[in-house]
Amino acid sequence: MSVEFHNVVKRYGEATAVAGISFTVEAGTLVTLLGPSGCGKTTTLRMIAGLELPNEGRISIAGRDVTTLGATQRDVSMVFQSYALFPHMNVLENVCYGLRRSGQSREDAARHAREGLRQVGLESYEQRQPSELSGGQQQRVAVARALVLKPSVLLFDEPLSNLDARLRRQMREEIRELQLRLGLTVVYVTHDQQEAMAVSDRIIVMNAGRIEQQGSPRDLYERPATPFLARFMGESNPARGLLRRLGPETVRVRLGACEIDVANANAADGEATVAIRPEAIAVERPENGDTNSLAGTIARASYLGTHMEYSIDTAAGLLFATCPRVERPLAVGDPVALQLAPRGVIVVES
Amino acid sequence: MTSRAPLAWSAAGLIAAVALPWYALQEGLDSGAWLTGLWSSEDYASGFGQIVEQGRWWLAPVLLALMACLAAALVPATRQQRGTLLLIASTAGLLLFVAQALGIGLRGWTAAWLTGLFGELEVRQVGLGAGGAVVLVALLSLLSIGLALRGNFGGDAFVAGAVTTVAASIVLFTAWPILRILVQAFQDGDGVLAPVLLLERLATEKIWSLRCLSGGGRCGVAWNTLFLAIGCGVGTTVLGLAFALIVTRTSFGFKKTLRVLTVLPIVTPPFVIGLALILVFGRAGLVNQFLEWSMGIEPTRWIYGFHGVFLAQLFAFTPVAFLVLIGVVEGVSPTLEEASQTLRADRWATFTTVSLPLMRPGLANAFLVGFIESIADFGNPIVLGGDYGVLSTEIYFAVVGAQLDYGRAASLALLLLVFALGAFFLQRRIVGTGSYATISGKGDSGLPTPLPAAARRAAACVALPWAAFTLILYGFAFVGGFVKVWGRDYTPTLDHYAKAFAVEHTADGLIWTGAAWNSFWTTLKLAAIAAPLTAALGLIAAWLLVRQRFAGRAALEFATMLSFAVPGTVIGVAYVFAFNVPPIEITGTAMIIVLCFIFRNMPVGVRAGMAAMSQIDRSLDEASLTLRGRAPQTLFYVVLPLLRPALVGALVYGFVRAVTTVSAVVFLVTAEYELATTYIILRVINGDYGLAIAYSCALIVLMLAVILLIQFAVGERRLGRRAVALKGGPA
Lengths: 350, 731
Description:
The complex is a heterodimer.
Chain A (H helix, E strand, L loop, with lengths): L2 E10 L2 E11 L4 E5 L6 H9 L6 E6 L2 E2 L10 E4 L11 H11 L4 H14 L15 H13 L5 E5 L7 H18 L3 E5 L2 H7 L2 E6 L2 E6 L1 H6 L4 H6 L4 E9 L4 E6 L2 E6 L6 E7 L4 E4 L9 E10 L4 E7 L2 E7 L11 E6 L4 E5 L1
Parallel strand pairs in A: 3-8, 3-9, 6-7, 7-8
Antiparallel strand pairs in A: 1-2, 1-4, 4-5, 9-10, 11-12, 11-14, 12-13, 14-20, 15-19, 16-17, 16-19, 17-18
Helix pairs in contact in A: 2-3, 2-4, 3-4
Chain B lengths: L3 H16 L27 H6 L7 H15 L4 H25 E2 L2 E2 L2 H7 L11 H20 L7 H29 L9 H8 L2 H4 L2 H4 L6 H29 L5 H13 L4 H10 L4 H10 L10 H26 L2 H9 L4 H30 L2 H6 L6 H10 L5 H26 L21 H28 L2 E3 L3 E4 L2 H7 L1 E4 L2 E4 L4 H31 L5 H13 L2 H11 L11 H24 L4 H9 L4 H12 L1 H17 L15 H10 L3 H26 L17
Antiparallel strand pairs in B: 1-2, 3-4, 5-6
């Protein structure tokens, strides 16, 4: 167990940023702290780093209690959102910095720093100033600088938010690849759920200073425990439906005229909030003899190249749906019949 | 760090309590005579010697607390427990230390109720010496280590130590002296508290009379000071704004020359302008001579009084207002002005409804600076005031004059302090802390709107003649040093320079025979000691205030701001009162002058440091911390290299202000430690203008040289070939 939080609380004056959270990060895994801005994820990361000390609770890293230790005394290093490359040092000096501060000789530090730069593919850039590098290169220097210290935990604070969309995907793949190759323990903060799902072994979703749910990306997407999570992990339409239990593992959800059998083990009978994933809504032109479908009218339609996006007025409210068929799009005002796939209908609150 | 640092500090304290004399020595430490008397001699004994041999039992609890710290460092304990133990022991030690230092003085117990409680003392104590000082420092360090071990200050002992050092030194050398003024103002000659006395001292005609308004006689000094200060504040703000608008918003061709005008007063001792005015308008000045020669008008003493002081202050402080306002004018976002113009406002409407209101906080700030500079000014009123007394000169005469009335000096100083702080708070109330004209991190691609024609003409009419006049004054001041006797004999001569700076080459080598050398070298030496300490303390304080979160941060920031508003005269008088009796007895030494320099000038270093630091992304510090760089290393390798411009500024300011200041040190100089400015002022009062001017010019040259030297030694900030914003990466 590499990082352990025990009922950790952080307050700034009156405001509580982190309200008593506990979690563990297993060695060799990449765990993401995910949540909207102001949810306490960055504060949590900074408490792992030792840049903030908790008001209550206990933090241990690699089995050692570090609760009152400052950043310098902990075996962690961090990649910052702004990269925080020292503008008055060149690339090699930047990567050497931590090694020199840990007491390595100039030669050893340079050797290890070159090794680190090789791992991120920047061996020929050592004499450049940070300002002469592209965003992606700066990012890699920041990673190399943190990596060469061989920390027990490597921290990433929204590392991709300053990159453009294309580079973002490439960098997140590189980070994941590096983590798997070197068996690093990584804690990663982001507010982008796609990014989180793409890189993580496990995701901890935070909201208002608390942990909302934690689990594998698939767990969180397919079995969100709260309405917040269903909204936050991917898109979903909230709707009210009527529940009736069919068996220990199945319930039947009634939405308007349509009934869907959904896997669920604990919801009680009665009215409930369900979340409907937009990709689980099949948008069809109505035909005679439609059974078990939800009637509606197209309110908005947009063409996005790879798919269509529709907003549809139904008895269950305004539903947002994506449709992979783009060749014969529907127009505003067209009547439609919606089929719901059981996989994308989730009971979130009964 | 867990136990070595507290061990080292406890040991250092205890060693000092054995091996260094506890009290201050008359002859200083260098003589070495104390080495043999550490145990038995009354004067030389160390802390333990004083307890055992001299019967100064009150030191025992302090040293016991120190031994408790040693024990806390040695026992096996967790960080948290050790921190708590150290905290308790060192706090107890500090409280006991302060209690005995304040409670027992030269004449035994310092308060009657203490004598009643403990009985008459047979032995007393003098000022604190090396041993006592080291024990105090050790206790403070142990306190900060204890706090850090318990997880305060981010668990960092260096930060904790820095906060303790800055806070303790501000308390000791700013808050405590000012508090002493308060006490002194309420005391009679024998040190007995008598609150009524303050009223008696302050409620006199001489201070509050308003007879000048009704036409008969003079006004009181308090009104004089206020009238002058308000006039100076308004005048410098208007002139400064005119200059700032011309430089930033017109295509005026001689902007560089105007910028030079802003450097001159920084390196000019404040009374030089006064001197130049005497050369032009004085009894023997050019104007009077011309009038006498052409029209037979008797020379007048017109310049001596309100007009003279007011003019001199306008000349001296307008450039300061300009410096403040140029930042304000540049800070008005061009985008807002462009927005206004796209909303159908013409240039004039834009200027009056958008630009000017946005500058309002800055204008209030410039007024405050002019106001405070004016009430703090001592050089010009003493040179030009004549019968027009102001508070700063009145305080001076109360302390050094025949009156020798400390109580009156303290009361007047209190009044001056109230004026300064009153203006300070009024400004904060009116403006609030918010300024809209801050420069955000976002790029602002708009173009500054040119001034409307009417405003441009007005600004030019005010500013340009004024600039020309300033240059002429400086020119006269310069020439004045090279003529025999101004007003009577204009033969060119180098006599004044020779008299001041003669060097004779004899068989024994060089002999510095000039009259000025003594004060010159003292000034140079003390300023050179003070400047780096000022810069270091100022920048460390700035770093703490901007970068660290700790309890009492707001109070510390407020204290540094406040000491900026305290007039130099008040500080000077306060130092005299606070440091001529135990526990800290340093009046008449060079140390008190250096301390005065440091704590007078540090607030500016703090402000400059804070401004520069807030432009450097905080994540750079944090990156260094997570890369195993401890706080001092982060400061040294990351923050300082990026702060070079601020460092240069703080060093230059620390040095230049130490050389040019008059008001504070005029109370602290002695025959042995005479400073250049006070020497010059005395020459001016004696009418020896030639020598005074020659010396002033030499000082200006010296300061320009030192500025270049500092610039060269500290060097430029190296940020790579491309110009970059000081962020860790593209934002």
